[in-house]
Amino acid sequence: MRDTGIRALQTAAVAVAFALALSGCSAAPDPPATSTENAPPETLASGLKVPWSVVPVEGGGALISQRDEGNVLELTPDRELRVAGALPDVSAGGEAGLNGLAVHEEGGVRWLYAYHATADDNRVVRMPLTGEPGSLSLDLAREEVVLRGIPVSANHNGGRIAFGPDGMLYVATGDAGQREASQDPASLSGKILRLSPDGSPAPGNPGGTAVYSLGHRNVQGLAWSADGTLWASEFGQDTWDELNRIVPGGNYGWPLHEGVAGADGFVDPVRAWKPSEASPSGIAVYDGGTVLVAGLRGERLWIVDGSDPSSAWATFTGEFGRLRDVVAGPRGSIWVLTNNTDGRGSPEKGDDRLLQVTLPEG
Question: What is the pLDDT of residues 4-50, one digit of tens each?
């Protein structure tokens, strides 16, 4: 039974009142109300403008994408913010712009990968990431297009990218308003793609193309458990948002089904929420098996027992506004990225922020 992450989160009441009250791997009664009043998370960065993705880098810093400006910021180990580079071809509008980031080393080169919109498409590009912590820089002169031709839209634009434990690049795309394209294996819309680092279809993909799974509406979160399970968060239409366990070649139903349908030939979500409770974006796995889901409209962080997704509770509800991304930080911490400056939130002084929650060992 994979319960170490749950135990750690149970004990975190000292730091952030994660009172989960989980018992084994079965559902438990509702936990007591949680609050961060007495031990608020630490602010690592503030004044961010429409941040979308955060990637920890060696030395204790991070890279942060700013969707509308097209800037990649470095949060230095000394907690200063500086521009590491500005991608030149970013075209921002609605949910499109500079979205997901990922760092990967290959052939002795440390590459920064980015998913961004242009006037014609969404594409994934990469460029060398040079310099030392505190002075990181994007070598834009050596930028390479990894994948082009992903349909772009102001809504349902996808945008999350991540390298899996297999060393392959996973790319989450939205349906871009083309609902039926999600069911078309020849389209890049409404899919999770699996690529080699150079952008070619990864070996072993079902069908031999870049498509790894289909039938998605708008995936914005990708993360892996210690056992290799791929989890994905997905925006629904009006009824259900989803947390999905991804299997190769799986069809997740959109636009034919939303939420749990029990229909032959389709994979149901392991967890579904009303959009007012979630609108899930970035996700992370804590301590190998606990799935953390950042909620935008829901303004909360969902905590899901990966071994029994019926066990799920929320924290930070309404305390920091819209939450765009969550990642595992250094030394047993998690980092949470707010998103109140995107035109859909209610920014307060200092927004947007990168917050650090340090959890005690369990």
Answer: 444 444 334 323 334 332 223 333 334 433 444 435 799 999 999 99
Q: Which residues contact 356 (CB under 8 A, 6 or more apart)?
A: 41, 42, 43, 44, 329, 333, 334, 335, 336
The 10s digit of each residue's pLDDT in 150-180 is 999 999 999 999 999 999 999 999 999 999 9
Place of tokens 């150079």: 198
CB-CB contact of 308 with 292 (8 Å) = no
d(CA 13, CA 234): 29
* Residue whose C-alpha is closest to residue 300's, from 95, 34, 68, 79: 34
Entry pTM: 0.91
- Residue found by looking up tokens 């919109």 in the block: 117
Edge-first strand order for the sheet with 301-305 is 280-286, 290-295, 301-305, 312-315
Residue 227: how many CB atoms within 10 A of its CB? 11
